[in-house]
Amino acid sequence: MKGENQGREEKGKGMQLFGVTILPLNGLGGKALRLYISQSELENLNDAPFSGDEENGGSEERKTEINGNWIPATSITEAKINAKAKRRLRKNSSRDSGRGDSVSENGETLKIGVVPTSPKGKLLDRRSRSGKGRGLPKKGGAGGKGVWGTPGQVYDVEEVDIKDPNYDDDQENCVYETVVLPLDERAFEKTLTPIIQEYFEHGDTNEVSEMLKNLNLGEMKYSVPVLAVSLALEGKASHREMTSKLISDLCGTVVSRTDVEKSFDRLLKELPELVLDSPRAPQLVGQFIARAVGDGILSSTYIDGYKGTVDCVQARAALDRATVLLSMSKGGKRIDSVWGAGGGQQSVKHLVKEIDMLLKEYLLSGDVLEAERCLQELEVPHFHHELVYEAIVLVLESTGEKTFKMILDLLKTLWKSSVITVDQMKRGYERVYCEIPDINLDVPHSYSVLERFVEECFQAGIISKPLRDLCPSRGRKRFVSEGDGGRLKLESY
Q1: Residue 168: its pLDDT value, please?
Q2: Helix pair 348-365, 385-397: axis angle to 10 deg
Q3: Given this model, what pLDDT does residue 165 score?
Q4: Is the per-residue pLDDT at 170 higher than 50?
Q5: Packed helices 313-328 and 257-269: angle between N→C axes, nearest 10 degrees
Q6: 446-459 and 401-416 helices cross at what angle (nearest 10)?
């Protein structure tokens, strides 16, 4: 408040008053005030917050004239408070619009609605913060990041506008489908190789068929048997059996009989290259052809169509092998044993017979590598202890040094190549140790031969020292004492 003393004296009601002009106040209609103060009050004015009369509890009330009307000074204070509250209300009207705020008669702000006070509530408030507008949410609450329309709005199928300049009559009858591009040669091999290799692990032909149906093989369908046979040539006998079964199950669902004939034509042409990786490829391809004819997925006249027209030596050998196998079967029936029974599917008697024949062929030929290959083709690593047992029994039953050295060389080679594991080698020796008393009944010198053979195996590093120490020995027969009546001391093992 700023005032200026005019220095003019006025008389009223018997006392001298001094006039003071007060600048207009906001909230009072912009009207000027004129205060009249007496000489005694003017003299008592100072910088202290209270005058002498106010400190003494005086009850004399000051009055102010507004538009010729005298009003108490307390009413001016209330007017100031109300004006200040109204200014604050007008300033925040756009921000607090719709929240139910109001001002009471005493100037206090009343909160009728609920105002979000948490930081999250302020963050999610979509009202304008610029102080402009009516304070309503943008786009009626349907605007902002991550908002798909107003709450509760359901979108219907958009109708096509016929008057649209881009409207096309054919677009209403369009059918959209996922198009899978056909595989080229490079992508075909890269995609199908893991599928076939995984099939060798689980053996489920239905799973392979479903995976191939999801691919657009196009003109590469005939390459499925070609790739499967090529991978099986480098695998085991059980893999080749599984490949024959796979080709038989895929015929009619994924590939046709024409595709199968085309695939074997390609295999016969590629035999010179397959021989570089698999020397036995001609014989194996011939067995695949014979098995396909026996399964009924290849025509019985397929081989006859190549008579006199084949110049390749490998292709001729494959066709000859197939012809021999088909002639051995009765009336071209299915050849189930062309690949033999795989691994654990073979009976124990059959495995014992195969191992016995393997050892006898080795003693006649002396080819260690061939014996190792035949043992691996049996696919029974858990039954290799039988070969160790049978080999040692042959040494005990032999009379010459040739068998002794050949069996020692065979076990040494199989040990170094890790074909026979430590556990299988130990189990084979322990079986001989347990049955040596029965073997000694047929072979009198079996103890001494066994001790010598075990010592030679230990020197060659085939067995360990604890296993060598377990070897039983036969004590020398002697009389217990002179008074025992000729009794012999029991043998110690």
Answers
A1: 79
A2: 50
A3: 83
A4: yes
A5: 130
A6: 40
111 vs 94: CA distance, rounded Å: 16
Residue 128 identity: S
Distance between CA atoms of 129 and 135, rounded to whole angstroms? 8
Sign of CA dihedral 249, 253, 259, 263: negative
Q: Which two tokens stand for residue 271?
A: 């035999």
Residue 27: predicted pLDDT = 47
Backbone angles phi, psi at 34, to 5 degrees: -130, 120
Is the pLDDT at 49 greater than 50, yes or no?
no
| Residue 280 tokens, joined | 């036995």
Residue range 272-317, pLDDT digits in tens: 999 998 888 999 999 999 989 888 898 888 988 888 788 889 999 9
Q: What span, in angstroms and rounded, lies between the C-alpha atoms of 189 and 217?
A: 11
DSSP E strand stretches across 192-268: none
Q: What does DSSP assign to residue 169?
A: G
**Residue 81, phi then psi, degrees to nearest 5:** -65, -45
Which range in 111-115, 264-268, 470-474 is most confidently predicted, on average pLDDT?
264-268
Nearest to 465 by CA among 424, 426, 419, 408: 426
Pick 138 or 484 by higher pLDDT.
Answer: 138
Residue entry with tokens 């009343």:
110
> What helix, strand, coil percent values describe the chain, rounded to 5?
50, 10, 40
Structure tokens at 201: 């692990």
- Whole-number Cα distances in Å, 228 to 23, 192, 193, 332, 353: 105, 9, 8, 24, 32
> Which range has the top average pLDDT, 124-138, 164-178, 276-290, 468-482?
276-290
Q: Is the distance from CB of 239 to CB of 200 less than 8 angstroms?
A: yes
- The partner residues of 11 in beta bridges, in order of sequence, read 16
Measured in degrees and rounded to the nearest 5, phi and psi for residue 221 equal -60, -40
Query: Has residue 211 got a pLDDT over 60?
Result: yes
Cα(466)–Cα(13) distance, integer angstroms = 138
The one-letter amino acid code at 461 reads: G
Q: Which amino acid appears at position 184 of this protein? A: D
Q: What are the beta bridge partners of residue 102?
A: 110
| pLDDT over 90 percentage in the chain | 31
Of 198, 215, 220, the C-alpha closest to 266 is 220
Residue 121, pLDDT > 60, answer no
Supply the pLDDT for residue 224. 93
Longest dimension (CA), the chain: 172
Query: Whose CA is closest to 212, among 239, 192, 242, 232?
Result: 192
* Residue pointed to by tokens 């609450």: 141
